[in-house]
């Protein structure tokens, strides 16, 4: 299980440049005019995790297979998008298919790059996008509730649950708050997710700054961080231009370049880590002479469901998981050493997989 992150924002904030850099492709046409992205570009990237290289080195694995993350570059939205302005609802629909939203905000001055509103104000830009998503959700909710009337009269329990959740979202939106502020009970989570409300998606604010501000940010990014803190959201500082340059370098050159810029890691690493935290994801590993592989799961996933990420038969026929913590695997120099040191555990169906676990599943076919 990876995850899909939609890259959204106003035109000319650096979305397509960032997408190109992160996916190391030229799939998205970066151009200095609105709506240069018409169809959503989709690109997959490896999730960087140094632990995987370490495990592969110890096990002598022939192949290393990282976890994967999908970026979806969604066309620039404008004020009035929910009413069909610009390229409108076509792109709002693309957001529904993502797990989270990376909201790219222009936090740099550049007279050569046109801003759709003729000014640089990332907080105002964020409000424009949020407003359009909220208006779209309100319109969708009103239509859906109207379509539920007949089923509600027939006391359909599923319809009653759906209407109750839609009503809660509608109340929040009419109060000027996104749907993600609604508190949802555990038994309603599945139905809530199926509503696919745009403003229920977790949001990361991505501050796109100039190269000289990449390490510490600037007044624009500080304003975004303040806004995000008030909303309980996260922020990531990125220079799309730096990411673009890094994407053309090999690993050694990229590390030297980052050092010269005063950066410890690439923006991609920060963005993916922030995305993992946002969606409460973690990683476990399977390791052997053929391959070392990383798998993405939700925090709190039980062993059978973690096995099911590899194959449904693993979950159905689950017997137990032979488990070694990452630190123990490294300290004991592999599986054999971990066994001898008593660090390999046999865990059953009630085991909650931990981040970094090295697992081997036993199952009935």
Q: Could you give a quick summary of the protein structure above?
A:
This protein has about 375 residues and is an alpha/beta fold.
Overall description:
The chain has 365 residues and is α/β, with parallel strands linked by helices. The chain has helices at residues 15-23, 50-59, 89-95, 122-147, 149-153, 157-174, 189-194, 219-231, 240-246, 251-260, 267-279, 303-310, 312-316, 326-331, 335-340, and strands at 3-8, 41-46, 63-65, 68-73, 100-106, 203-208, 234-238, 281-287, 291-298, 318-324, 345-347, 358-363. The strands form 3 sheets. Strands 2-4-1-5-6-7 form a 6-stranded mixed sheet, with helices on both faces. Strands 3-9-8 form a 3-stranded mixed sheet, sandwiched between helices. The radius of gyration is 23 Å and the shape is flat. Residues 25-39 and 84-88 have low confidence and may be disordered.
């Amino acid at each position: 299980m990876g995850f899909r992150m939609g890259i959204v924002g106003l035109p000319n904030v650096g979305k397509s440049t960032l997408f190109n850099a992160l996916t190391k492709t030229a799939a998205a046409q970066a151009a200095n005019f609105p709506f240069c992205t018409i169809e959503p570009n989709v690109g997959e990237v490896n999730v960087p995790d140094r632990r995987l290289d370490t495990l592969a080195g110890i096990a002598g694995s022939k192949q290393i297979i990282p976890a994967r993350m999908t970026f979806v570059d969604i066309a620039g939205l404008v004020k009035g998008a929910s009413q069909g302005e610009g390229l409108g609802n076509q792109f709002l629909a693309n957001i529904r298919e993502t797990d989270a939203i990376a909201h790219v905000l222009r936090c740099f001055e550049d007279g050569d790059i046109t801003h759709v509103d003729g000014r640089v104000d990332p907080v105002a830009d964020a409000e424009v996008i949020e407003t359009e998503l909220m208006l779209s959700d309100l319109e969708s909710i009103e239509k859906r509730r109207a379509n539920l009337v007949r089923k509600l009269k027939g006391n359909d329990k599923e319809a009653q649950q759906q209407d109750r959740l839609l009503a809660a979202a509608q109340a929040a939106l009419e109060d000027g708050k996104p749907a993600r502020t609604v508190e949802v009970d555990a038994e309603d989570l599945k139905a809530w997710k199926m509503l696919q409300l745009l403003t229920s998606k977790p949001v990361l604010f991505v501050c796109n700054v100039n190269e000289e501000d990449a390490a510490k940010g600037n007044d624009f990014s500080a304003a975004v961080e303040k806004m995000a803190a008030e909303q309980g959201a996260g922020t990531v500082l990125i220079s799309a231009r730096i990411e673009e340059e890094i994407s053309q370098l090999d690993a050694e050159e990229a590390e030297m370049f980052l050092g010269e810029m005063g950066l410890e890691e690439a923006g991609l690493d920060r963005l993916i880590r922030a995305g993992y935290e946002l969606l409460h994801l973690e990683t476990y590993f399977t390791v052997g002479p053929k391959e070392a592989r990383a798998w993405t799961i939700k925090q709190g996933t039980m062993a059978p469901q973690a096995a099911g990420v590899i194959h449904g038969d693993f979950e159905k026929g689950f017997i137990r998981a032979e488990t070694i913590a990452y630190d123990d695997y490294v300290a004991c120099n592999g599986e054999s050493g971990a066994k001898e040191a008593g660090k390999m555990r046999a865990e059953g169906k009630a085991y909650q997989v931990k981040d970094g676990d090295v697992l081997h599943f036993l199952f009935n076919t």
